[in-house]
Amino acid sequence: MSETPARRRRAPARGARPPALPTAAVVVLLLVALAALAAGVTPLLVCGVATAAVMVVGVLVHRQTNAWLWLLVAAVMATWGVGRLAQAHDVVVAQQVCDALCLVMAGVLVVVVMRWVARARRRPDLFDTVTVLVVVVLAVVQVAQLLGEERPVAALASVQVVITAFLGRLALSRRRLQPAWVTLLLGAVLMSTGGLAEPLAAGAGDLPALALGAGSLLFAVAALLPSSRSALVAEALVERAAGSKVVLAALPLVLAPAGLWAVDRQLGTGALPEALHIAVGTLSAATAVLRAFAATRRLEHQAEHDPLTDLRNRRGLARVHDQAEHPWALLLVDLDDFKDVNDSYGHDAGDQLLLVVRARLLEAVADDGVVARFGGDEFAVLVHPGREVAVAERVVAAMRASVVVDGAGGVSVRCTASVGVTPPVPGLGLSELLTRADVALYAAKGDGRDRARVYAPEQREAVVERLTLTSQVRQLLGGRSPAVGRLEMHYQPLVELRTGEVVGAEALVRWRHPEQGLLAPDAFLGHVATTGLDAELDAAVLAEVLEQMGRWRDQRRRVLPVSVNLTRSSLLDPALADRVADGLARAGVPGRQLRVEITEHEPLPDDDGLAATLQRLRGLGVEVHLDDYGTGYTSLDYLERFPVTLLKVDRSVVQALPGRSQVVAGLAALSRTMRLDVLAEGVETPEQRARLVELGVRYGQGWLFSRPLAAADYAAGVLGDPPPVPPVPPVPAPRLPLAAAPAGPATGRPDGDRTRAGMI
User: Fold this and answer.
1) Would you call 651 helix, strand, or coil by DSSP?
2) Which of 78, 359, 427, 621 falls between 20 and 30 A from 231, CA-CA?
3) Long-range contacts formed by 133-139: CB under 8 A, 24+ apart
4) Residue 525: CB partners within 8 Å, gap ≥ 6?
5) Residues 6 or more apart from 654 whose CB is under 8 A from it?
6) Quick check: pTM over 0.85?
7) Per-residue pLDDT tens for 603-655?
8) What angle do CA 484, 487, 489 make, to 5 degrees?
9) CA-to-CA distance for 662 and 672, rounded, in angstroms?
10) 188-196 — which CB contacts under 8 Å span 24+ positions?
């Protein structure tokens, strides 16, 4: 993945030395702070101003996102330090103004952070809003007191209580916080604790001041950490803690009113209005209790709902089924070709398609049932009795409309659905309903997909047959059981139309079944595709073809190029080129003797990896042919993206001759322009052959020339007999006995090795 310019600018090169500016700045500020302390300047003033200066340096060096918030924190610290100076010299008005400004800026920070928490949750949070209101109201009340004549000690302590409770809730409700966030939280907790300890524990000595100073310095450290670049953004708070920890996070809010009461009781000033205790206590406690209740309900909701679509999952559907007073009918909905969308355009596009399917299902079902998603592209619908067939037909019709997938670059995707229907049966559990619906779904898939089928007992036999066939195909591809037979390759010659000369062959797979005899591709290829075994079949076919070509070469027969069809799954495998290269090397076959055919019937993604795979095959000498041309997807697009050398005109176009002569002539002209060869499939009559020659088509394939032939028949009829092995010339008897023969030279290769090398 390439980096953006901004990212490259911010990310230092590996091994590069860190910038010297932060270190130098910290050293200088530390020396200045020590000098100020030696001169008798108020320590907390030094901490506050030094922290503000270091934070400004951090902003200049790291260029943080939302740098204004870091500068706001720096301003709070500077103002706080000035307030401590005014406090040390009994300048009450200046202290009150500084403390009031600190409260206002701290309130702004709290509001911003709470809004980020709400954004991170991607939904409005009433309880966070209540907490923000509590902080704002308290800050306003305390500012009013600070600017008035009342004593501000209790006012400031009460704000510290609320802020400390807020910080505790934030720390407990998030997880995987960045180091800068953790450092900021620790600094804020220390400062809040020190601020509370000042009025509440008069005999604590210098501990409150130490806590305040340490907390302020932690702010400076946070600004210098590399993670500060992206710490103050909403995305840094996305990951929420586990449910039990979220409930625990309500505890600080519950303790906030008790803390306020303790502050007022300890100070004995009566500075806080009683109504404020009641209001804050009620709001905080209610917020905490409601938050805990909401967290529990959210956990229950997540346990029974799908995270992507927010539909009920299997557990949630079981609850609806078990609580009903009447028997339900059940629909099992499975999307056709959904795997192709995921493979072609990525899982984000697949998720977008699933959300569209969710909306269409809800609209089609309406008030007649309850929709659920079990995972992947499988949905289930509980339907009120008597409505199941009508709802199933509406679902199938709704799914037929194309969907424009933004994640696929605005490509229009058509993804139909097959539906299995189980009528209601009193006393039947959800598990058995699903089993029957699954059987009906198999029937819908077997009948051609894009349709609904109602469960019937005899369908179980068809399911058993399909499962048996699946098992046999797996054994067949694995070569583990002779009892299921073997794959057998047949070869149909490819000829030059004008001369009739054979120029190659297409390899076509057959299944030699022990009971049913030789099975044509239509008997099992469709099942192979629907069960996801097409890539395994491709690999088996490719290996057998290369081995057969190697045997012909060993027999010293004439070897002509052979074309092998590859399905979409094989083409998208990044290891395809390596496997082809290994197979060619093992068989001793040059790459120019192999052709791979890609078909238009399956959409191929606009993917750099696929184009690179095909280019690697061309680098091996393997030619790429485009099969079934004129009947499928974006043909011209394929010709531009892939290194195609030959177009195979689909048999449906050839069978329509002479009616589609202009189409064939256009394809021939296109091929000449792009320097491609053209081959016509399905040539069955001399008239078709003659017309194709007139239209400029060079090669042909079809029953007019030959049916597909077994390997032995193809070799005998097309490749010809191997040349006779020349007789070995007689070897004259040695003039000397073998024991008296002279020894070979002391150095160099022995004569025996030379002779053996000459025979190879």
Assistant:
1) helix
2) 78
3) 133/283, 134/162, 134/280, 134/283, 134/284, 134/287, 135/107, 135/110, 135/111, 135/162, 135/163, 135/166, 136/107, 136/111, 137/279, 138/162, 138/276, 138/280, 139/103, 139/104, 139/106, 139/107
4) 509, 537
5) 664, 680, 681, 682, 683, 688, 692, 702
6) no
7) 677 667 888 899 999 999 999 998 877 665 545 777 878 889 998 888 888 88
8) 160
9) 15
10) 188/163, 188/215, 189/164, 189/215, 190/214, 190/215, 190/218, 191/215, 191/216, 192/160, 192/163, 192/164, 192/167, 193/164, 195/156, 195/157, 195/160, 196/157, 196/160, 196/161, 196/164, 196/263
The rounded distance, in Å, linking the Cα atoms of 370 and 607 is: 39
Per-residue model confidence (pLDDT) at position 376: 83
Report whether 81 contacts 52 (CB < 8 A). yes
Taken as a whole, the chain contains a residue count of: 760
Closest of 422, 414, 413 to residue 441, by C-alpha: 422
pLDDT tens per residue across span 299-351:
777 888 888 888 999 888 988 888 887 899 999 999 887 877 776 677 788 88
* Residue where the block lists tokens 């001041």: 209
3-class DSSP state of 178: coil
Inter-helix orientation angle 459-478/430-446, to 10°: 70
pLDDT digits 0-9 by tens, 189-223? 777 777 666 666 555 556 777 777 787 778 888 88
Residue 419, C-beta contacts closer than 8 angstroms, at least 6 positions apart: 331, 332, 333, 334, 392, 395, 396, 440, 441, 444, 451, 452, 453
Residue 258 contacts by C-beta under 8 Å, 6 or more apart in sequence? Answer: none
Token pair 């302590």 in the structure block, residue:
157
Residue 100 region, left (φ>0) first, then alpha (ψ -120 to 50), else beta? alpha
Measured from the Cβ of residue 357, the count of other Cβ atoms closer than 10 Å reads 24
SS3 47: helix
